[in-house]
Specification:
With 111 residues, this protein is mainly α. It contains five helices and two strands.
Length: 111
């Protein structure tokens, strides 16, 4: 649905262009790892998509869940070196914006 689109591939490219944010582990960190942040943000954005589209059939919802799993897996691969590190505030802000862009791709799939 979205992971095989040009828009998604452009977002992965954008992420790789900003990997320096994840190379620097200095700064204020919370207790959550980059993996925790990504997983939570993807899940909450997916729940928002479901809430905004209550008419979605179960089959479509399952497809979206698979797509969300693929997004998390892709992010895990790209961010492998930082994946289990505690996330800095800068990383959390970047991930929040980035995953918001991914949500936009999910939203556009229904328009």
């Amino acid at each position: 649905m979205i992971v095989n689109t040009e828009g998604y591939h452009s977002l992965i490219e954008y992420l790789t262009e900003n990997l320096a944010i994840f190379a620097n582990q200095q700064g204020d960190t919370g207790e959550e790892t980059v993996e925790d942040i990504v997983t939570d943000l993807v899940a909450s954005n997916l729940m928002t998509v479901f809430a905004q589209n209550p008419e979605l059939e179960s089959e479509v919802r399952f497809t979206l869940l698979r797509e969300a799993d693929a997004v998390v897996a892709d992010l895990g691969e790209v961010l492998a070196s930082a994946w289990v590190q505690k996330a800095t505030n800068e990383q959390v802000m970047f991930l929040d914006d980035y995953i918001g862009l991914i949500k936009n791709l999910f939203d556009s799939a229904f328009q």
